[in-house]
Amino acid sequence: MSRRRHSDEGDAGSQPHKRRRTSEPIEIEDRLESLICRVGEKSTSSLESNLEGLAGVLEADLPNYKSKILRILCAVARLLPEKLTVYTTLVGLLNARNYNFGGEFVEAMIRQLKETLKSNLYTEAVYLVRFLSDLVNCHVIAAPSMVAMFENFVSVTQEEDIPQVRSDWYVYVVLSSLPWVGKELYEKKDVEMDRLLNQIEGYLKRRQKIHVPMLQVWTAEKPHPQEEYLDCLWAQVQKLKKDRWQERHILRPYIAFDSVLCEALQHNLPPFTPPAHSDDAVYPMPHVVFRMFDYTDAPEGPVMPGSHSVERFVIEENLHCIIKSHWRERKTCAAQLLSYPGKNKIPLNYHIVEVIFGELFQLPVPPHIDVMYTALLIELCKLQPGSLPQVLAQATEMMYMRLDTMNTTCIDRLISWFSHHLSNFQFRWSWDDWADCLTQDLEKPKPKFVKEVLEKCMRLSYHQRIVDIVPASFSALIPAEPLCFYKYGEENSTSLPGFPVATTVSNAIKNRASNEEILIVLKDVPNPNQDDDDDEGDGFNPLKIEVFLQTLLHLAAKSFSHSFSALAKFHEVLKALTDCDEGKLHILRVLYEFWKNHPEMISVLVDKFIRTQIVDCAAVANWVFSPEMAHDFTRFYVWEILHSTIRKMNKHVQKIQKELDEAKEKLEKQQNKKQRDSGDEEDMEKNSEDEEGQLEEQIERLQEKVESAQSEQKNLFLVIFQRFIMLLTEHLVRCETSGVDINTTWYKNCIERLQQIFLMHHVIIQQYMGTLENLLFTAELDHHILAVYQQFCALQL
């Protein structure tokens, strides 16, 4: 094909020329996009000469491709914040050559800023404001107009009846831009800047910080304080001001072009008023700055900047930006992190590991899917085999040492990461270094962590492999062999009530009996809940469930697939046995009793029970909090099951809501079409009326389904919170009566699991806050439990 095209070019025919002309602008546009996006990456030429060359190319293309160039530059300002100063320099050079283009770019950026705020894209809005502020250094924007914009932002703190998270964001966007532009603004407008910082300081002193304990990875302030993000940034900016705004880490390519840029005419920003608060605005949640290392942890090489130095903020911010830009491609992301500019001046590996764990442990949820961080760390270890694995091992050791004060949700994530990581490196680890956990109570954080890690490793491997890799001294922490417990197959089981029927059921299943035949066999099972002289009746019969489910699970115990097939085949029997709430609860008890040494099987089969509607979500919640589960209450898999159940419920509601919205949209389109075609024939009108009638009926049915599903969802949360309150209240009363300290390992775990429910499902729970406050979290509740609810409320206030 390429040969034919080559010969066509020399041909006098007009067709090839036409085709080339239509594709040429697209090729040039693609080339421009590629040139702009790749500037600042590794190159044989210097960054300065690349920028000068690119500015020349873009200037030449401005007459024909101005709107495309504007669009690309606005996009990179928003989407590639790690190369911010590279692009501000490029815009500065273009502005020096073409003043009108500079003005159009500033207007386009302001338009884009308004759109991002309107769309709740607050992270991208931070990058846009930071970009605009750095344009002051490039002599594109006049300093006084930038100060005026900052003053408008800070004035939001004076607004009344707004959530604190709104004012927090506007203060953050100003403070986080100052490392880039503070020096320039102070030189031009020192009085106004002092007034601005005083206003911010006043706001920071009066703002509420009830939410902080809920968001901290560690409760202990030593060795590193876990500071609220605005307090930490304020301390960093204060130190920067004290150092006369001298910052040594931001790459500033525009300095090389100072003689050109200082001749350029500057633009004033149009007056920018922050959009008014609306109820559908979703502001970013506050967070706590994750700290794991300081200069003492990186003994060789460059010194790590202090936690209150602005360099620490800039480095971390840039690393977060790189992850945000490239997280979908782990290889690219790892390579970009390791080629970070200025890497020779800092202990880069320590910064990277701290930032990755900071994101993984971020509460309520990490910015990206958990498994991405595992994949990224594995990739980094491959690229830096001589240094990064050692830093990672050091970090793991530190986290192990601090498990006593670590948030339970973060311990869950640490377990998942560590077990997955080990599975990629032949499960090699210096287990003997953690032998201190063997002398502790098995419910203490360290032995519990090791036990849960080994259990997760077993899911990614098999039992004998785990036995082989772990020292014999750790035998108490090695998970039990994942075997089932079939009560009717044990010695002396012949005396058990229901044994004869269990044998009959087993033979019937082997002989491919139908659901109806099995139900007939089960009629012979005596009901332990009824007296002999009572009529048989169709009430709840726990023994019926035990006989059938134990036998069915035993025959299908070979694999997940066998179990799934068995449940599908006898779905009708299972539905008949669980037609009441007690039946649903009891089927879960029987499942647990049968597979208690195989938590993964329990998780998978509970999931299957919910999907096939054998049990409902509320039954699973009641089972998790039941006395039979008390022994496993603090185990990882139990909470995995509960959160999975809540997510299923939430997805169910969303699915029906989506169907309802689509039906309403369809009806609206139908009515609009009818109005437009009102002059057409009568039979068409009749058809359209029939369709409308059907749609209205469908909407009515869906409306009922949505209300029913939301009621079920609300009930699920009520059940969960009610059971939490009962358990915690019992514990608090018991401790008070006995004069014992309430802060046991169990209490820490339970109260943090309550926090976890609030945090992981905060969007849904906020819809039902009125009900929760009226029914459960009332003023009479013990203040230890109520404090968790108040912390949650403070997150969005």
UniProtKB/TrEMBL annotation:
Specify whether Flavoprotein is a keyword of the entry: no
Localization = Cytoplasm; Nucleus
Its GO CC terms are:
cytoplasm; nuclear cap binding complex; nucleus
- The MIF4G domain covers 29-241
The record, for Gene3D superfamilies, names:
1.25.40.180
Q: Specify residue ranges for compositional bias: Basic and acidic residues.
A: 665-678
Q: Note the SUPFAM superfamilies from the entry.
A: ARM repeat
Q: Name one GO molecular function term.
A: RNA cap binding
- Does Oxidoreductase count among this protein's keywords? no
GO annotation terms (biological process)? 7-methylguanosine mRNA capping; mRNA export from nucleus; nuclear-transcribed mRNA catabolic process, nonsense-mediated decay; regulation of mRNA processing; regulation of translation; regulatory ncRNA-mediated gene silencing; RNA splicing
Q: Which UniProt keywords apply?
A: Coiled coil, Cytoplasm, mRNA capping, mRNA processing, mRNA splicing, mRNA transport, Nonsense-mediated mRNA decay, Nucleus, RNA-mediated gene silencing, Translation regulation, Transport
Instruction: Mark out the compositionally biased spans (Acidic residues).
Output: 679-697
> According to the UniProt record, where is the region Disordered?
1-25, 665-702
InterPro entries xrefs: ARM-type_fold, CBP80, MIF4G-like_typ-1, MIF4G-like_typ-2, MIF4G-like_typ-3
Name the family the entry cites.
Answer: Belongs to the NCBP1 family.
UniProt-recorded name of the protein: MIF4G domain-containing protein
Q: Please give the organism.
A: Culter alburnus (Topmouth culter)
